[in-house]
Amino acid sequence: MGATAVVTEMVAAAGLSRRSVKSHRLLQYHPEEKPIGVQLFGSRPGDFEGAAEIVSELGFDFIDINAGCPVKKVVNNGSGSALLRDIPTLAAIVRAVSSHTSLPVTVKIRVGWSPEEPVPDSLPAILAEEGAAAIAVHGRYRSDMFAGEARKMEIERIVRESPVPVIANGDSRSVRNAIDLMDATGAAGLMIGRGALGNPWIFRGILSGKPENASLAAEEVVSVIWQHYGWMSDYIPAAHLYGILRGQLLHYIRGFRGAADLRARAVGVDCREDLSDILSELEKLLKLERQRKA
Ligand SMILES: Cc1cc2nc3c(=O)[nH]c(=O)nc-3n(C[C@H](O)[C@H](O)[C@H](O)COP(=O)(O)O)c2cc1C
C-alpha cells in the first residue's frame, strides 16, 4: 500500500539464541514486507550484541531499538521507555548494536518519561554519535501511556536537535492528521501504528496527499481483506487464526451504515464460509454507502 518500510513487533534481545531463531514466529516475515526492520528490546547491552549478530543474518533491512514501550512489565526490567531515564545504558545499547551489525540502526523513543522528565536536548546527538541512523519519536511521555493527544511541539523539539532524520509518530488516524503531524513537526518521515489497522490504504493516501478511502471500490476493500486473511492463515497456527482474524475484521468493519450489525456477526467468525458470507455482506453495504455518498 506504499509504506516505505515496516517493523516487526518487539523481540526480546535476551531471548534470542541461535537455537530458537528458526522457530521464532516474531522473526518470520513475508518477502513482500521488505524493506523490513526488526525491533529489539531489552536492558543489557551484552544481550543486544548477540541479538544484533543473530538478526543480521536473517535478511532484515535495519535493526530498531525499542526505548518507548510503556508497559509495566517491560519498564520494571529497565527496558522500553525506562531507557529514557538511563541515557548511558541506552547509549551503550545503541553502541552494542551498531558495532555488531552492518545494518542501519534506528531507535524508537518517546518524548520523555513524564512532563517533569523530558528527554534531554542532547539525546538525538548522543544516539547519532553511537550509530543511530534515524530516530522515531512517539509524541507521548511514558506517563501518558496511550492517552491524550500526541504532543507535536515536543516532537518538533527533538527534530530541531537531531543530526539524523526524525520520524514522527502518534495519532495519524487519517491522511489529514498525518499531514498535519508532518507539517507541525518538520519531521523527515511518519510512522503509522493504529491508523493502519483496518485501513492499510492510509499509506497510499498520505503519499498522494489526499484521502482516498471514500473512493475505494467495495471490491477492492474485500479483496484486500481476503489477501490479509490468506497471509494470516499461512502464518498463524489454525487454532488461533480466527481469534486473531476477528480483531482485524472489526477494524475493517466501521464507519458505514450497517457496520454495527455486521461487527456483531464478525465477532463470531470461526470458519472460511462464515468469513465469505460476512465479506459478501460487507461488499454490499459498502456499495450502498458509496452510492449514497455519490
Ligand atoms: C497493540 C499495540 C502494540 C504495540 N507494539 C509496539 C511494539 O512492539 N514496538 C513499538 O515500538 N511500538 C509498539 N506500539 C506503539 C506504536 O508503535 C505507536 O508508537 C503508538 O501506537 C502511537 O502511534 P499511533 O497513534 O500511530 O498508533 C504498539 C501499540 C499498540 C497499540
Q: Quick recap of the structure?
A:
This protein has two domains: 6-211, TIM Barrel; 216-293. Helices cover 44% and strands 16% of the residues. The protein has twelve helices and eight strands.
Describe this structure as you would to a colleague.
- It is a single chain.
- 44% of the residues lie in helices and 16% in strands.
- With 294 residues, the chain is α/β, with parallel strands linked by helices.
- It folds into two domains: 6-211, TIM Barrel (Alpha-Beta Barrel), CATH 3.20.20.70; 216-293.
- Strands 1, 2, 3, 4, 5, 6, 7 and 8 form an eight-stranded mixed sheet that branches.
- Helix 2 packs parallel to helix 4.
- The longest helix has 22 residues, at 272-293.
- The two termini are 25 Å apart.
- The mean pLDDT is 95.
- Flavin mononucleotide binds at residues 9-10, 39, 66, 68-69, 108, 138, 169-172, 192-195.
